[in-house]
Write a structure and sequence with these properties.
18% strand; alpha/beta; Archaeosine Trna-guanine Transglycosylase, Chain: A, domain 4; four-stranded antiparallel sheet
């Protein structure tokens, strides 16, 4: 059975397929004898490459994963049951370091076709009428209005890709003046101005909610052309008629938009992983990281995230921050999340998930190193909070939750127009406002869910392709998707989740 070791100093390898007791582990030996599995080892799990004693450090990615709680002979199975977590790295001592590597592998293709939004916003990858809301109370009316608009109006505007109801659970019954309420308010505000909405605002409110329109719109935006308050309407019929009438005017403007050739500097994309396995950090995530390095070197804005996943590798991120200001913001965001979890007596054992563990990830340190692989090797030029618009160009850490929907929605509010999503276990997650490009970590996942993936990174696991080879394919696919010449599987099947506003403030 084939097994993959990341670095020479690693004392474990990951088996590529289900391994039976007595199976030989290809390419490895102990005392000049072929290495043999001592017990059944599930696919993606770790096999000891030498005799290891209780208390000995387990090394993968060249990183300490933990300490053995029992002796394990060469060929034995190392998993969460016999591995003790090491201490989490301290945040207070983080300093800027060597600042990462500069990518020298720049492809010749350096432009894409997108919808230009002027100097203050990234360009759009899709041309969408987004109908937003100040409060969840209006969601039913807005959803019904969108159905009618798509049925009766949208066919007359062929250059508009879609009409989307941006449904969220925020707006009332919340502590609107709480210290942390700025996070969900910022998320709602920035979604109204998402690049894929082409500067067209159609926001529906109830009237009595805590989140009033002047909190999420500029004074010049808060007018009858952009805002409808349902409590000002006479019955349901008028609500629908007025939303449709407003939508018709917006559709006419959007229909006149055309794609134009744009530089990479106008592109903002994100990446996250969900349903990860031990192959995530071997194949899919390094492929994303390599493509991110190419995009960042070309001037694009590329966001990676998931605070609780990268927490145990935060010292590696600090070492790549370009200046002390970025390190200080990194420390602030990580410390905030540490305190946020501590208030509910949650520790690192809350992550990984049962699926992660089944896929071979023993603990959060191992998961962190695989997750960080999505960031490539570029310097980190900026750190932003959840749902915050970045200002710099290059690699950006967006401090979002690790929850798929929490991360995806927060990156969405930060204005990304495409998200790369890697998985080893599989998930039908998607967002209607942007394309989601799915990458599976190994062939068996592709065989199971072949029609739901846009790329199979399993060729890296089997040795059929290198990470640079896969990354160049991914890079080309990214530019094709944002240019509108290629649709992703989530777009094809319309697999969409609601927009989840991250709200750490109290609900009243």
């Amino acid at each position: 059975m084939k097994a993959v070791r990341i670095l020479e100093q690693d004392n474990v390898a990951v088996v590529v397929g289900p391994t039976k007791a007595g199976d030989g582990i290809e390419g490895y030996s102990v005392n000049s004898m072929p290495l043999v599995a001592l017990c059944d080892i599930p696919q993606g799990h770790k096999v000891a490459l030498k005799d290891l004693r209780q208390g000995e450090a387990i090394i993968r990615y060249g990183v300490l994963l933990g300490y053995l709680t029992e002796d394990v002979r060469a060929g034995g199975w190392i998993n969460e049951q016999n591995l003790q977590l090491p201490s989490s790295p301290a945040v207070s001592s983080l300093k800027a370091g060597k600042q990462g590597a500069v990518c020298m592998d720049l492809p010749s293709r350096r432009t894409w076709m997108g919808y230009d939004n002027g100097p203050d916003l990234p360009a759009g990858s899709r041309n969408i009428l987004g109908i937003t809301m100040s409060v969840h109370c209006v969601a039913g009316v807005v959803r019904n209005a969108v159905d009618i608009i798509k049925r009766d109006l949208l066919p007359s505007y062929p250059n508009v890709d879609d009409v989307v109801a941006v449904v969220h659970p925020y707006g009332c019954g919340v502590a609107i003046a709480a210290d942390e309420a700025f996070i969900p308010i910022r998320g709602v505000r920035n979604m109204i101005h998402h690049p894929n909405f082409g500067g067209q605002i159609l926001c529906v409110g109830l009237g009595c909610e805590k989140l009033q329109m002047d909190m999420i719109l500029e004074p010049e935006e808060n007018n009858s052309e952009n805002v409808l308050i349902l409590q000002d309407c006479k019955g349901y019929g008028e609500m629908i008629d007025r939303i449709c009438a407003m939508a018709k005017k917006k559709l006419e403007i959007l229909n006149a938009r055309r794609r134009v050739e744009l530089p990479l500097e106008k592109l903002r994309i994100g990446a996250q992983c969900g349903g990860s396995d031990a192959f995530s950090g071997i194949s899919a995530n390094p492929t994303i990281g390599y493509a991110f390095d190419m995009l960042a070197a070309g001037g694009a804005q590329v966001l990676f995230s998931e605070v609780t996943e990268v927490r145990d590798g935060v010292h590696y991120l600090a070492d790549r921050c370009q200046d002390e200001a970025s390190v200080e913001r990194l420390k602030s965001e990580i410390s905030w999340y540490d305190n946020y979890l501590a208030r509910s007596h949650v520790d690192r054992s809350a992550n990984p998930t049962p699926g992660n563990k089944k896929g071979g990830l023993s603990n959060i340190v191992e998961k962190a190193m695989g997750s960080i692989a999505k960031s490539g090797s570029s310097p980190i030029v900026e750190v932003v909070g959840p749902g915050e618009f970045p200002k710099c160009h290059g690699l950006i850490f967006a401090a979002t939750p690790a929850s798929d929907l929490g991360c995806g929605s927060s990156q969405l509010a930060s204005g990304i127009v495409l998200q790369l999503f890697s998985t080893g276990r599989g998930t039908p997650y998607g967002l209607q406002e942007i394309p989601i490009y799915k990458i599976c970590t190994q062939h068996s996942m592709k065989a199971q869910w072949g029609d739901l993936f846009d790329m199979d990174a399993g060729y890296v696991v089997t040795g059929e392709k290198t990470i640079p080879q896969m990354a160049h394919i991914l890079y080309s696919d990214i530019l094709d998707v944002v240019s509108g010449t290629k649709k992703t599987a989530t777009e094809k099947y319309r697999l969409y989740n609601d927009f989840l506003v991250f709200n750490p403030a109290p609900i009243t």
